[in-house]
Amino acid sequence: MQEVRSRRVYEQAERSDGRRVLVDRLWPRGLSKEKAHLDEWLKAVAPSDELRRWYGHQPAKFAEFKRRYKTELTEPDRAEALRHLRDEARTGPVTLLTATKDIEHSEAEVLVQLMRSK
Fold first, then answer.
1. Terminus-to-terminus CA distance in the chain, angstroms?
2. Could you read off the pLDDT of 79-92 as tens digits, one per residue?
3. Could you give the dihedral angle defined by the CA atoms of residues 68, 71, 72 and 78, in that order, rounded to the nearest 10 degrees?
4. Residue 87 CB neighbour total at 10 angstroms
């Protein structure tokens, strides 16, 4: 099984993280590139600005956000980015990073669920 998980980008990097990939469209506030300890910033897999603004990280909207986001992930650029993440996960652990405080209701968690289900 692929080892993939989500974490906040602000948390201290751990050796067990494996490949660290930021999946947010916007750079995290107040975080330097050095402190982020990223292997990759994959903006192409992030939700559209329109979807992100509509959702506004409101847990009550999460089910609909998840449905809309999964639809967006079928678009060619996003689908290719998701394939890339799956390929990375075949070679070792991958940690999907987000600035969101509520990890359980984030695009990173949707991606983790998708990657684990295939």
1. 10
2. 999 999 999 999 99
3. 140
4. 10
**Beta sheet of 94-98, edge-to-edge order:** 4-8, 94-98, 19-22, 40-41
Residues paired with residue 40 on neighbouring β-strands, in sequence order: 21
DSSP structural state of residue 42: -
Q: Is the Cβ–Cβ distance between 68 and 51 less than 8 Å? A: yes
Evaluated on CA atoms 22, 20, 9, 33, the torsion sign reads negative
Reading the block at residue 7, the tokens are 């974490």
Residues forming a β-bridge with 21: 40, 96
What is the value of pTM for the model shown? 0.94
How confident is the model over 4-54, as pLDDT tens digits? 999 999 999 999 999 999 999 999 999 998 899 999 999 999 999 999 999
What are the tens digits of pLDDT across the range 53-73?
999 999 999 999 999 999 999
- Which residues contact residue 41 at a Cβ distance below 8 angstroms, ignoring those fewer than 6 apart? 21, 22, 27
